[in-house]
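Email to the structure team, subject: SH3 domain-binding glutamic acid-rich-like protein model.

Hi all, the expression group asked for a predicted structure before they design truncation constructs. Nothing fancy, just the C-alpha cells so they can compare against earlier work. One-line instruction: predict SH3 domain-binding glutamic acid-rich-like protein, return C-alpha cells.
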Amino acid sequence: MVCSAIKKQQQDIMGFLTVNKIDFKECDIVTSEENRKWMRENVPEDFRPMTGVPLPPQIFNEEHYCGNYEAFFDAREEHAVYAFLGLTAPPGSKEAEALAGLEQQ
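Reply from the structure team: attached below.
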C-alpha cells in the first residue's frame, strides 16, 4: 500500500513538472544504492522522521533540499511551487502575478 502511494506521489510531481516545462531528473533509489545513500544523507536533520529513514519522494534542486511530497503539495495549493523549487516564476504564471501584486502593495 505504501509503495502505491509513493508511486502516485512521484507521478503527481513529475506530471506537474512536465506540464509546466520545468526540467527535472528522476533519481531512482530502488535500483541505485548510490542514489539512496545520497538522498538519505542530504535530507536535513530537521526534516527526517523521528525513526527510520526519509521516504521518497524527496525533492532537491541540485544540492539544495526543497522538501517532501507534502511540502510540494502545499506549495502547489498556494501557487508557490517555483519559490519552493528555488526557481523564478515565469511571467504570466499565477505565482508571478501573485508576487507582482505583493510588490505593488
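The radius of gyration is 15 Å. The chain has a mean pLDDT of 92. Ping us if the truncation boundaries need rechecking.
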